[in-house]
Design a protein that fits this description.
4-stranded antiparallel beta sheet, 8 helices
C-alpha cells in the first residue's frame, strides 16, 4: 500500500473519514485517483455558474468559497471550504454548475477528472458512501447558514461563523498553536452573513470588547470558548463530526 504521509490526497482521505470509516482498499483507491496539482491565486474561479463540471478540485492548501450573484451583481457567499475538502462533490452527477466556486486565498488544488471520481464512487461502495455523507453534511451546513442569516441577530451570526470555522479546522487536524487565522475580509464576512462591512466591523469590535475574541490582524483567539458558543447559539450537531474530533475545542 502506498504511504499516505506526504501524499497530495491524504487530506481528502482524512476528510472522508470524518464521517465514515474507510477500508485500506478504499483509502488506496482515493490515493490512486489521477490528479493534476495546480497553484491558484486568491479570487481565481475554480468553477463558474453554467460551467460543465469536468474536474473535481480538492483543496490542498488555502481556502475557497461558494457564492451566487443576483442579476445586478450582489453576492451571497454560501459556504466556506478548508484544506482537504473537495469543492465539486455537489456537481459530480450534474451536467451544469448552478453556482460559483472561488478562492479566498492563494492555495494549491489537486484536480481530479470527474469521471475518475464517479467510477471510484460506484466501484467502491465505502468511498461512495463517504462521498454521499460528505455531501449530506454540506447540505446540513447550508441549512444552518440559512437559519443563521434568517433568524439570528448580527452578533450571533458573526460569532456562529467564527465558531464553525474553528471547529471545522480542528476536526481536519489543523490545531493552532495559539490562534486561528480567519481568511475572510470584513466585506466577505458581510456577504456571508447578510450584513454590511460597517456592521461586521462594529460586531467584531464588540465581541473583542466583551472579551469573547482576541484579534491580531486576521488571527483570532477564543479566551472563553463556552461563552462564545452561548453567544453564537452554536451547537456543532449539524457538522456531524465524531465526538473525539471535538476534544481540542473543549474549554
Amino acid at each position: 500500500m502506498t504511504g499516505i504521509d506526504g501524499h497530495p490526497l491524504r487530506l481528502l482521505v482524512r476528510k472522508l473519514e470524518t464521517h465514515h470509516a474507510l477500508s485500506d482498499a478504499d483509502r488506496q483507491g482515493v490515493l490512486d485517483l489521477p490528479h493534476r496539482l495546480r497553484t491558484v491565486d486568491a479570487q481565481s474561479y475554480l468553477l463558474r455558474e453554467g460551467d460543465l463540471p469536468e474536474r473535481c478540485a480538492v483543496l490542498l492548501s488555502g481556502y475557497a468559497f461558494r457564492h451566487k450573484l443576483t442579476g445586478d451583481g450582489a453576492r451571497q457567499i454560501l459556504a466556506l471550504h478548508i484544506p482537504g475538502e473537495a469543492v465539486d462533490f455537489q456537481n459530480m452527477f450534474l451536467n451544469e454548475a448552478d453556482h460559483n466556486v472561488q478562492m479566498l486565498t492563494q492555495g494549491q488544488v489537486a484536480e481530479v477528472p470527474r469521471q475518475a471520481f464517479e467510477e471510484l464512487a460506484l466501484a467502491r461502495p465505502g468511498v461512495g458512501r463517504a462521498i454521499l455523507i460528505t455531501t449530506l453534511v454540506e447540505a446540513s451546513i447550508f441549512r444552518e447558514w440559512t437559519l443563521n442569516i434568517g433568524r439570528r441577530d448580527s452578533r450571533s451570526r458573526i460569532a456562529h461563523m467564527l465558531c464553525e470555522f474553528a471547529i471545522r479546522l480542528s476536526a481536519q487536524g489543523f490545531e493552532p498553536e495559539d490562534a486561528y487565522e480567519l481568511p475572510m475580509t470584513q466585506e466577505q464576512l458581510a456577504d456571508a452573513t447578510g450584513l454590511t462591512p460597517v456592521h461586521v466591523n462594529r460586531v467584531l469590535k464588540a465581541l473583542e470588547a466583551e472579551g469573547l475574541i482576541e484579534r491580531n490582524r486576521r488571527a483570532i483567539r477564543f479566551p472563553h470558548w463556552q461563552r462564545m458558543r452561548d453567544v453564537a447559539d452554536f451547537n456543532p450537531r449539524y457538522l456531524h463530526i465524531r465526538e473525539e474530533r471535538l476534544d481540542g475545542m473543549r474549554e
